[in-house]
Specification:
single chain, alpha/beta, Nucleotidyltransferase, domain 5, five-stranded mixed β-sheet, 4 helices, 47% helix, 22% strand, globular
Length: 143
């Protein structure tokens, strides 16, 4: 079982992959998209699915702090539908509130990374946090 975690934005999608046992995640790439012009980077996602033998997707669901849904939740669900139609793999959603904030804090505190460099890695780190949260919860459910 290898899952792909995705942090979907309007311009980029952060991508993370789980290990084969489904215990850990690692951010691997940021795929450029253009939501406004309906370009979703599915060809590159497909290459990564094939390369890493992905068996399912976990997509971050950017709910509001009060647990309500906004337009970004709708966009994440639409992206999930596109993936389901193209690849036929299972899709799951993981609450991603504060993952980008947590990723940025980690880069500032732990790595002392400049703002410009943070922009280049934050989405894949956020995807890794989304996927790791999902894997941690799933593992606890199995115990």
């Amino acid at each position: 079982m290898r899952l792909m975690g995705l942090d979907v934005g309007s311009k980029t999608v952060g991508v993370a992959i789980s290990d084969l046992l489904g215990w850990t995640s690692q951010g691997i790439e940021i795929v450029s998209i253009d939501e406004e012009n309906e370009y979703f980077g599915l060809d590159r996602i497909g290459e990564l699915v094939k390369e890493h033998e992905v068996t399912g997707f976990v997509i971050g669901l950017p709910k509001n702090m009060n647990n309500s849904s906004g337009p970004r939740v709708d966009a994440a669900k639409k992206y999930g539908s596109l993936l389901k139609d193209k690849f036929g793999l299972p899709i799951d959603f993981e609450d991603e509130r504060l993952t980008t904030v947590e990723a940025e804090r980690m880069l500032i505190e732990k790595a002392d990374v400049s703002r410009n460099k943070r922009k280049k890695v934050i989405d894949k780190l956020a995807a890794g946090l989304i996927l790791q949260s999902y894997l941690d919860k799933k593992g606890k459910l199995l115990q």
